[in-house]
User: Fold this.
Amino acid sequence: MTGDVSKEGDCKNFIDETIKVFGRLDHLVNNAGVAHSFLFEDADLSSLHPVMDITFWGNVYPTLYALPHLRKTRGKIVVNASVAAWLPIPRMSIYNAAKAGILNFYETLRLEVEPAVGIITVTPGYVESEMTKGKFMTREGKLVLDEETRDIQVGPWPVEFAEDCAKAMVLGALKGKRHVQVPSWYNTFVLYRVFAPEVLDWVYRLLYVQKTSQGKPYTKAIMEVPGAKKGLYPPSMQG
Assistant:
């Protein structure tokens, strides 16, 4: 069953088709998202519309059409909101805004639909995926695979195995948690965000905005150190 989540009609169709085939809907997992990796001032805003269409509306549309069915089964919505929802990661301003909107949307929706429908928000850090393998939206609005862009954007942050992230999400849903943070060490960033935001700003500005004497972002320079990828990335990202 396929569909374009940025199109409302497609979202309605695949929910309707699910009910037609299975007769009920117990869970809705919203995972759609597409990121970019360039500074806001370098952007062509028209090319960034798909980022918002997929990452924000691509979650809202299926939720709208799934809710009546989830109410009948007292089902759950699991939302991949990303740490980008609350971490100001440079070079991803529109993507971050979309994820922040998603997180706030579902936090608000929870008040409107619980206890009839459960909502679990998940904010993964960098996880093994098409994006962390280098698939980003370009300034021209095209999705391309570019490992150099990946090295700049993901940089020296450890990347979680996709399977481990999926297990944490399923476990959170089974336990009825409101929120799942994976990997858990990202909770440290919450403390900096609240109590020492200047430190967090300094680190991100140094890594992503400032450049070395060779004109490279520091994230890229770090990843050029021999063995860096082997120590930080899953095997699928080391090619």
Remarks:
- Residues 83 and 125 are 5 Å apart (CA to CA).
- Residues 49-73 form the longest helix (25 residues).
